[in-house]
Amino acid sequence: MVHACFVDKMQVMQDVKNKRVTVAGLGRFGGGIEVSRWLVEQGARVLVTDKEPLEKLLDSVKKLDGLPIEFRLGGHRTEDFCSCDLVVTSPAIPFTNEFLRAARDRGVAITTEIRLFVERCNAPVVGITATKGKSTTTALVGEMLKSRYNVHVGGNIGGSLLSKAPSIGPDDLVVLELSSYMLEHLGTQHWSPHVGIVGMIGVDHVEWHGSPEKYVNAKKNLVRFMKPNDIAVLSEENEGSSSFARDTKAKVVRFGMNGRKPFELELKGAHNQLNAQAAFAAAQELGVSWDQAQKAVRNFRGLPHRLQIVHEANGVKWVNDSIATIPEAAIVAMKAFPAGKVIQIVGGYDKHLDMREMCETLAKSCKAVLTIGALGPRLAGISREATERSADIKESGDLPTAVSMARKLAAPGDVVLLSPGCASYDQFTNFEARGEAFAQLAKES
Fold first, then answer.
1. CA 151 → CA 144, 145, 177, 249, 276, distances in Å?
2. What is the pTM of this model?
């Protein structure tokens, strides 16, 4: 289902020169920086608004220093959304936001940075989505395709490609990691990439989308508008991904572990082997051989916060997997290491997901489970009730306390694993900040 109220003027607003444009959401990590700069370069009159105050956005504002941009920080004003020609919204702002509703009611066109890019992109696009694993798969497919093409990687990984669009030729390839938020907005454009990879599909971002079904429905926009000569690369092992075949007219290519030659990887875990198989299934369709793919990814060491070894001392490995913000990801991370050797830190913000399977699995297979954050007490309670529990369960409260406890529990051969299975928002700005804090605490041993 597409939000028809967004479909639209932006199909014809290719020229933003002299248009009044409101950029909604600068972000503490600068999500709106590149699109604001690009709009100024196109001759638009730009106002940037964010609900956060200047002191929290100072680093982002400084990156736009000297540009003719008006800032409205510390809150939004309805008139800024209604008196402009165009709103460029952060994809993290939901359709139901009161200020976006006001803009729609006034007939103001609404778009996003990723929409602006795909409208101007002349190259074929390989799009990747998943509940977990999409960043690593995006990086892997980018590496594989570089053996044959001039490749540009962006979207939810690697930053904006908008300013580079004029220099991206039709013989190049663009690889985009696409979140459910981005795909929700792209659905209004009836756009899907030429090649789409759908990894593991679970449940996430229910608060934003409204229900698990609406979350999955947004993901389906990756393949929903494909043509028969396009390619949908779907998992044969994950039911959620596999089911997307019913929602596309594209050629369907399956990936999985069964019967496939494994890649030699630096990356740990069966899930990363599966990510590599997904990347290769797409790359092969674009002419990349297995040998070329293997050479491209042999020394790929992974992305930060994804089973990243951040410290080793006294025979103990400290592993940052802060990206694990759903329970399924925490289970997968634990299974990348020997049973009984993992001291796992879990917990954080409550996204109202079912945590029982995670708790029971970790209680059975870990050496210890240390809980933190808002969900910490609940996770500890569920874990202690596990029928096959062998792990030591401890409520740590916060990350520094958990690291201190882990240091006392760890013996040579053990792994201290931050793979929380929860979002970070109760104690950290985002999962990156949580992972960086863990790495720093680990190195203080």
1. 10, 7, 13, 26, 18
2. 0.90
